[in-house]
# Entry
Amino acid sequence: MADLEQLRQEAEGLRRKIRDARIAVADTKLQDVASSVPGVSRVSLRTRKTLRGHLAKIYAMHWASDSRNLVSASQDGKLIVWDAYTTNKVHAIPLRSSWVMTCAYAPSGSFVACGGLDNICSIYSLNTREGNVRVSKELQGHTGYLSSCRFLDDSRILTSSGDMTCALWDVESGEQVLSFNGHTGDVMSVSLGPDQNSFVSGACDASAKLWDIRSGVCRQTFTGHESDINAVSFFPNGQAFATGSDDATCRLFDIRADQELMMYSHDMIVCGITSVAFSKSGRLLLAGYDDFNCNVWDTLKGDRVGVLTGHDNRVSCLGVTEDGLAIATGSWDSFLKIWN
# Structure
């Protein structure tokens, strides 16, 4: 026990050293550097389309790379692929487990994936000869719920889980290629870097970690949040990322500076954040909240510049199209809304 206590003190000492080193090199604030940049004028987005069809809470959505189709997952036990232009349902896929928490669209548009409390990442092929969608692979290996998944390409997918790990899978063989260990709480979200060689994860240990996909090594750990991190999203240039947490704040972390650059919060906002996404330029940060709203923040200034209102329950997920022209929000009210 004495050894353990000694190791604890040593770890705490190292943590303090890292914190002091970060403070020592923090020679300026993002707000000061950006003070000469004009602020963003009020952002007012309108609901252009409402996608109706789910019969229960929507938990996740993900845009296809064509910026037209999107996939959504609901606890009505359905995965629906939508055409956002026409609001038509392209596919309605019945799931083996209705307790779904995440979904993803492959960059090629040929596959979608989902997972949840069944601990399995299920891959569905959309291009079958018969026209019906079928399970093409079930990736089993996590010992906790599946919280997030993202395709690198048709043959590789990244998952995060309540078992405190992330994993890289070979879809063809169904084998786990790499396991990413280091979080001390459920991993809630992953975001792939633009170069696809790194990803960032957010977890219930209130930390975010940057991982090297090639080696499986954790490169950096970012602390500062006071509660679970529910969502992470890479900045478009891959040099920074945003997080959303149950502590009612979003934060911007810079990878090169190795620390937090900005906190996005408001005295009137006291609820948790479920989802975050950047506009195509990165100037706007969109965040979905438990209070049924989606707030729009000026990334550089830290000011709230808009609010998307219209959902009648928690906004559980959101996404910006690849072309940057539209935003989708999904909610526990069972509807998806397309805004621009």
Remarks:
- The chain has two helices and 28 strands.
- The radius of gyration is 20 Å.
- The first strand starts at residue 47 and ends at 51.
